[in-house]
Structures are given as structure tokens and as C-alpha cells.
């Protein structure tokens, strides 16, 4: 019988040994295509027939585009698993994959510490309003004249975490070390044990009562623009907003208006609606700290994510099951 194939979409940068070791159980293949049209053609040509598992990276979007209905339809019939290297798998249309009997995995735990660190960095930077003086110093004007606005201490402030998954829970621990009071909102209220003392509140109550709001939820059809004009208006005047999840959870145009009016005091962002484009109203506003999607950008975490994704491919090929099946497919 022909050996199963595992298709690599994107690059392995760190875990070369583990990827190469998969060659004992599968034929490792890469696409010839350099863009979506070519990839669709390559699938149709039969060249990728026999591929059972696909390892894909966030950046492979440049080759294939989203794993949407059009793309999933043309994948070889042999494909049974799509293993996404990342916690957020919004580039993959899970219901469409489920409809074709394709199982999807992600790398949830590997990213928690690293992303929550960036989250905490942005919370502190935005609260302390460090962006304006960082700019004046680089422009040779020390603290500038007039002096930059005073920042705020994290101690005693209420942090509202929207999305209490792995990153949200990790952030909670970090923020507690800065003496912040934690409330959270989640699809489901967590057990006391998992919530670890954080208070569960309704979404609107969280918006109305938090001094700092952190977005830690996945992007999907229910969460796109979850924060828009109405929600921003509900927030306390002077609120600080931080997003390390996905840009499109916030309606960026509405956020720019809320910043311009001063209702939102400062913002820390690692993610944007249309990466790598960033709304000019965010770039030009000194009260916004911006990072170019660096949440998992450490050598330790990048390696851990690759190892985790390779393990998903390996167990899928060996046992027919994924280690980190996405929650939507559990129990299907
Ligand atoms: O953005 C990073 C990830 O989804 O892991």
C-alpha cells in the first residue's frame, strides 16, 4: 500500500529534526504553487493525491489564501487532517472542514505564556502612557514640552478579561502579581477552581466596570466586531483597551473615533483588522502602543508551537486522532 503523505504549507524554522523524523511514517511533500490559483490548480492536477495530513502555518496564507469552502472543496479526497500552527485558527473554516470529514487542530497551550507576557507589556505600557515619551525621547526631546500625561498604576485597577481560555487564565495570574482585580466574561462560566477567584460577569457589566479591558477570545462569525461603537460607548471614560487576540474583534474605525474623542484613553495592540495594514488613525495617535503581531515571537515558543503541531500530524497519521482538535469539532 502507498505510504500516506504529509503536506507542509509554509516553513518549519526550528523543529527540523522532528519534522524530518516523520518521514519514517509518511512521505513528506511540499507544494510547487506560489499562490492560491496555482495551489488550486495543483490540487486539481492530482499531484497532491495521497496527502492525508496538512501542516500549515499562519504565513502560508500567502500561498493558499484562507482554507475556505472554495479551497477545501478542491483538496484531495485523501485529506483527513489540517493541523494549524497557531492558537488562532480563523484562517481555517472549521464548519466547512467538518462537512468534508476533515479534522482540524491548533497549538493552544504552547502560546499561553508568551502571548500573556505581551498582553501584560501592553497593559502596563498603555496604562503608564509610555508611548508619547518613547517618541519624544527618540526625537531628541527627552520628555517633551509640554510634559507627557501622567500614567496610572495597575495596582487596584479592575482588569476585565474577555475570553478566559488558556491565554486569559495565564494573563489573570500575571495581572494579579501587579495587584489588579480580575473580572472575566466567557462563553461559559468557569468552575470556581478554573476561575481561580476571578469574578464572572456579563459582557456589558464587564464593559461598564473595567478600568482595563483585555480581549483574549478567538475570532469567528460571532466575535467579529464584538467591540464597536455601542460597546465602546458603554466603557468607562478613560478606559484602557488591549488586544492580542485578533484585530477584527474590534471595529477599528469605531476605535479610532473613541480614541479621538478621548473616551478611550489609551490602547495596546498586537493585532489588526487587515494585517499587515494598520489604520492610519491608530498609527498617528500617540496614545496607541503598536506591535506588529509579536505575541508568540520568541524562539522558545516558536519551537514549542512547531513541536506541538508536528505531534498533531504524527498522532493523526499513527492513530487517526488529533491531540489538539479544535473545540468546535470535539464530540462530532
Ligand atoms: O497569533 C498567534 C496565534 O494564533 O498563535
UniProtKB/TrEMBL annotation:
SUPFAM superfamilies: Formate/glycerate dehydrogenase catalytic domain-like, NAD(P)-binding Rossmann-fold domains
Cleaved signal peptide residues: none
Residues covered by the D-isomer specific 2-hydroxyacid dehydrogenase NAD-binding domain: 121-295
Pfam families according to UniProt: 2-Hacid_dh, 2-Hacid_dh_C
Keyword terms: NAD, Oxidoreductase
GO cellular component: cytosol
Top-level taxon: Eukaryota
CDD domains documented for this protein: Mand_dh_like (cd12168)
Record GO terms (molecular function): glyoxylate reductase (NADPH) activity; hydroxypyruvate reductase [NAD(P)H] activity; NAD binding
PROSITE patterns the record matches: D_2_HYDROXYACID_DH_1, D_2_HYDROXYACID_DH_3
PANTHER family reported in the protein's UniProt record: 2-HYDROXYACID DEHYDROGENASE-RELATED, HYPOTHETICAL D-ISOMER SPECIFIC 2-HYDROXYACID DEHYDROGENASE (EUROFUNG)
Family in the record: Belongs to the D-isomer specific 2-hydroxyacid dehydrogenase family.
Name recorded for this polypeptide: Glyoxylate reductase
